[in-house]
Design brief:
With about 210 residues, the chain is of the alpha/beta class. It has a single domain, classed as Spore Coat Polysaccharide Biosynthesis Protein SpsA, Chain A. It is built from eight helices and nine strands. The structure holds guanosine-5'-triphosphate (GTP) and magnesium ion (MG). Guanosine-5'-triphosphate binds next to β1 and α4.
Length: about 210
């Protein structure tokens, strides 16, 4: 698999942002640009194309210049609903979903996930990294998820049956893990901003 030919990225910005006070997370600023724009620009050189998944302020998201797809389900059932919206529109054999709120994600994210999927001959690959707050134990970051577009019908059935958890769905298929613990991997790469205070802290870190 060649990431810059076979993978389309989907920046997920469709959540409620509850812990941020209900604001539209993807439109909050990080280093002077919106989180969604930052993520789209960071992933763009790694893949064949970029799409955005959002459920509010669609006009603002469309102004960023990439296709924007809202969830099919109206009630914010979680990131799997964003995956389904992206799979339904994906022009390449693989979709790479990533959240908008983790701005320091690896600049080799796509190639490392592609390697993991290819090595295991798996239809899904997820990122995983040591968690400093948990004694360095590996933690899976399930919304950083590379998946084959042929999984759409199965995913839709899982959601329709009430399934909500990403790892519960992926476990049905065989899921490879790309472990970001090599020398040179940024230990903060998967730090995410759930609150505005966390977002400002991440910004300071990035500038420091
Ligand atoms: N499409 C879609 N994406 C979602 C949904 N819920 C969460 N996400 C995305 O999944 C990623 C991780 O979710 P969270 O960190 O929980 O973000 P959130 O749900 O907006 O924030 P909270 O309401 O505080 O949980 C983010 O990129 C969200 O935009 C949803 O219902 N639909
Ligand atoms: Mg949430």
């Amino acid at each position: 698999m060649m990431p810059d030919r076979d993978i389309t990225a989907l920046v997920l910005a469709g959540g409620r942002g509850t812990r941020m006070g209900g604001v539209d997370k993807g439109l909050q600023t990080f280093r002077g640009q919106s989180l969604a724009l930052h993520a789209a620009r960071r992933i763009q050189p790694q893949v064949a194309g970029v799409m955005l998944n959002a459920n509010r302020h669609l006009h603002d998201y469309r102004a960023l210049g990439w296709p924007v797809w809202p969830d099919a389900q109206p009630d914010h059932p979680g990131p799997l609903s964003g995956f389904a919206a992206g799979l339904a529109q994906c022009p390449t054999p693989w979709l790479l979903a990533l959240p908008c709120d983790t701005p320091l994600f690896p600049s080799d994210l796509a190639v490392r996930l592609a390697e993991a999927a290819a090595q295991a001959d798996a239809p899904i690959a997820m990122a995983c990294a040591p968690d400093a707050e948990d004694g360095g134990r590996l933690r899976t970051h399930a919304v950083f998820c590379l998946m084959r577009v042929t999984l759409l019908a199965d995913l839709q059935a899982f959601i329709d049956a009430g399934g909500r958890r990403v790892q519960q769905w992926s476990a049905r298929h065989g899921c490879a893990l790309a472990v970001f613990d090599r020398p040179g991997d940024d230990p903060q790469a998967f730090a995410n901003a759930n609150t505005l205070a966390e977002l400002r802290a991440l910004e300071a870190l990035a500038l420091g």
